[in-house]
Amino acid sequence: MKILLIEDELKIADFVLQGFSQVGFETDHFTQGTVGLKAALTGEYDAIVLDLMLPGMDGIEVLSNIRQSGSAIPVIILTAKGDLSDRLIGFEAGANDYLPKPFYVEELIARVKSLMITHKGQENSLLVVGQLSLDRITRRVQWLDHAMVLSQREFTLLEYLMRTPGHIFTRKQILKHVWAIEFDPQTNVVDVCIQRIKKKLNPTNQKNVAEFPIESIRGVGYKIKNVSHDL
Ligand code: CA
Fold first, then answer.
1. For residue 226, is pLDDT > 80?
2. 93 and 181 co-located in one domain
3. CB 3.0 to 4.6 Å from 97: which of 76, 138, 195, 228, for a disulfide?
4. Domain count along the chain
């Protein structure tokens, strides 16, 4: 097990390093966000323990960069900022878990182990339609060479469409499945959510739009192109 620790408080880093070495984790430690990110992108780690308040580049930015690179490595956020909004920002940026300071190193070790077990089992969690793949555990989606982590709603919507490629889902069905809304509230939340997914998969709009796997059926709804029929 090789862990990357990005933490600028040396006292905390020391006690984490000690705890990790006692259970046989090999750990590389960096104190700066930018340096830590560079290490994270080498792909040689099994998990990352990341502080939020860091010199240079803060933890959220480090995490966003890791996820934008397409990496689904388990990341635990470690921070003194324990309130809900920070936690939510962390999860939105792609964190797998969160531990507020002060903490017991035993708990951190237990969480790291549990995340790595989940991560190892995730090969079976992959949903693939043509060039589009979706990881049910990390919510990481990839189209062609671009990968991104979806929000919970974006994920639920895309997974719903991908489970039955070629089937046209009406806005009403999508509203019911993703938002649990039974009536037609005359909103465009479905279209807005689809636009967000499109933007995440094709942020610079450079790729061939005709090949885009989500198809809009005018006045009806959406479908995922059925590869065997459409190619
Ligand atoms: Ca710090």
1. no
2. no
3. 76
4. 2
Question: If residue 30 lies in a helix (H) or strand (E), which one and from where to where?
Answer: strand 26-30
Tokens for 166, please give them. Answer: 């070629």
If asked whether residues 77 and 117 sit together in one domain, one would say yes
**Distance of CA 106 to CAs 80, 99, 109, 168, 194, Å?**
18, 12, 5, 49, 42
The enclosing domain of 103 has a CATH number of: 3.40.50.2300
**What CATH number is attached to the domain comprising 134?**
1.10.10.10
Full-prediction pTM beyond 0.70?
no
Rounded distance from Cα 53 to ligand 1 centre (Å): 4
**pLDDT tens column, 125-170:** 788 888 899 988 888 999 988 888 999 899 999 999 998 888 899 9
User: Distance, CA 100 to ligand 1 centroid (Å)?
Assistant: 12
| Cβ proximity of 3 and 48 under 8 Å | yes
Ligand 1 is an ion; residues with CB less than 5 A from it: 8, 51, 53
Q: Is the pLDDT of residue 228 over 70?
A: no
| Ligand 1: centre distance to CA 12 (Å) | 9
